[in-house]
Amino acid sequence: MAKSRRARRWLGGALLAALLAAASMPAARAAAPGDAAAARGDYESAIEDYGAMLAARDLPDEQRVSLLAARAEAWQRLGFAPESIRDLEAALALAPARVPARESELRAMLGAAYLIGGNPVRAEQELHAAAGLARGADETRSLAAISVDLGMLHAMGPGAHPEAEAELEVAAGAAEAAGDPLLAARAAVGAGRLALARGDGAAAGRLLATAAKDLRQSPPSHDKAYTLIAAAELARSLDRRLRRSSGDDDRLAFDALTEAARWAAAQGDRRALSYAWGDLAELYGDRGRAAEARELTERALAALAGLRAPEIAYRWHWRQGRLLEAAGDSEGAIAAYRSAVAELQEIRSDLSLASLGARVSFRDAVGPVFLELADLLLRRPPGARLPQARLIEARQIVETLKGAELQDYFEDDCVASLQARAKPIDRLAPHTAALYPILLRDRIELLLSIGDGIEQVTVPVAGERVRETAATLRRLLEKRTTNEYLIPAHALYSWLIRPLEGALSASEIDTLVVVPDGPLLAIPFAALNDGEHFLIERYALAVTPGLTLVDPRPLPRESVAVLAGGITEAVQGFAPLPEVQEEMAAIRSLYGAEPLENAAFRSGRLEAALRRGSYTIVHLASHGVFLADARRSFILTFDGRLTMDELETMMKYGRFRARPVELLTLSACSTAAGDERAALGLAGVAVKAGARGALATLWSVSDRSSAELVAEFYRRLGDPKASKAAALQGAQRILLHDPRYRHPYYWAPFLLIGNWL
């Protein structure tokens, strides 16, 4: 297979094993050359072998259908849902008519492919169609297998899953009645995972015992190995939930993984063998048996030699790094972590993680791989200086994480495609510095880029303390009747800025570009306070989700074209924004733009304008809501809600023109206090929309002050000598020196995102 091929949908190890074990697979058929490769877990070779046979022109239709189904199964095992779907649809088109059992089998596989591929609507359609055909053909076993898939499907929806759990328990009973203990075990494991997710350890334990009994009655097979692995993961999760250091669940997990490894080794299934040994290594590690854990981790990696399995290998390299670090081998640990990051890089462009019952963010699931590597790279003895190459590598690791987080948030490849075109910023403009605050478990690492050099400052404050302080600051900034915000604002200044004052002063820095990490995304750095002055009084500020996501070039002033739109009236239950009228008047007087206002601010009108014209600035003055789920984030139009995907589609009309959109302004948007993922969406809005930069607000200020600040920003932007960051700084300073607007509630939420020049 081509090395550039990537999984379109990848699910975390234990969940993937459970899904693949549950998925309905094809019935028995004549052996084909690819079967031997598939049996040993070499699905890439199996796919090539099946493809060679399918290339024959005189192949009978029934044999072609069988080969397409077999190749579709191999695609599924690798997580390549679209390729599996393509083969199954081709098989259905060739399958003989009036053979319900065969069509049911193929549609069940198609439903499983859609399930793995993250399309629950199509998955449910195909599985229900398969169930109807199986019922008509009196295929009891097939019907039970489809019920397992439906239970897994419903388990992947939001919220609690009592119906899915019940469905899986019914499926387990049906499978037992059909004389298929392995299928019954799969269903019981799935139901047990759901019971544990809702906190019912007793029910999970009962279902685990049922699965163990059924597995003992099942003959050895490929699918039994994966079901044993999934059962062992349930046992270990139950053991951890009940906070036991040993016990029956521990013994069950050990026995299940040992049996899975024994069978996989005998059959030459190296993927299953790697899963079993890798999970056994974790079991030994949990029990403090580090030597055995290291040996089994090395075995798990060795089993993958010659196979392209980065979605498995990164997990074992990650654990290997932790084990080596614990053993005092820092350089060995760094090498292992580098391998894990490289493997994640292979799949991250299409990476979307899911768990039963709730979506797991990229940062929560695999972000620690990047941060733990950065942690190791940045460690140094007191008073020592690390080489610049080491600091650059650490910064690039964090940069990669930030890009992946954005892609994960928006669930598309906009960030990956932009990064592919972006050029690294080798040297910042004069009097400009970039600050990377990296929050680690026991400290903050500040990486300050000035010119082409990086300075490292270590602050002995735990990352969790920074998180709590940032959340407090954000909450208090929105209370305009109190100055309590000064306490956390001063603390954050002391940790993040004061240690850098000497370097900033020596280089005569007047513009500070911050690449915020985690909780720092949700706060305005402008409001940090040294006890006498706000940070915005000293520096023009900009934030960016990553320097490789920025194309810093000055705003062309010779012919600025502005498209403005907004709402002043109360619509769709949202409060009126009377200050928008003043914003529109200022834009009209400065740039001659005729705004789309109120009833004229409709999605269709906005799209038509963006199609027809080439704009330098797009200004949208309407309620914007950024949530943890990008699919629910929107900008209010008079006739509806403009999603981020729709905004991207509209903005892309000008993205590749000679004059792309330089600035997207969203002057009344808001994110929930303390919601890091929502703040991530706001930080990435320029990247998503295809604009070079954005001006947006962390919270909506429904007050005349907002209109005054926006108008002043645009007035200053007309000065060819002023950068966007300097224009915003000037506007914010005017407000903070006005007694009416001294409180940062009025001026701090405005963020310049992306290109600051």
What this model shows, in words?
- The two termini are 45 Å apart.
- It is built from 32 helices and 17 strands.
- Helix 1 (13-22) crosses helix 12, helix 12 runs antiparallel to helix 13 and helix 30 packs antiparallel against helix 31.
- Helix content is 55%, strand content 10%.
- It folds into 4 domains: 1-157, Serine Threonine Protein Phosphatase 5, Tetratricopeptide repeat, CATH 1.25.40.10; 309-410; 429-549, Nucleotidyltransferase, domain 5, CATH 3.30.420; 562-754, Rossmann fold.
- The radius of gyration is 29 Å and the shape is globular.
- It has a 6-stranded mixed beta sheet with strand order 9-8-10-14-16-17, sandwiched between helices. Strands 5-4-3-6-7 form a 5-stranded mixed beta sheet.
- The model is unreliable at 1-29 and 350-358 (pLDDT under 50).
- It is of the alpha/beta class and 757 residues long.
Quick rundown:
The chain is an alpha/beta fold and 757 residues long. The chain has 32 helices and 17 strands.
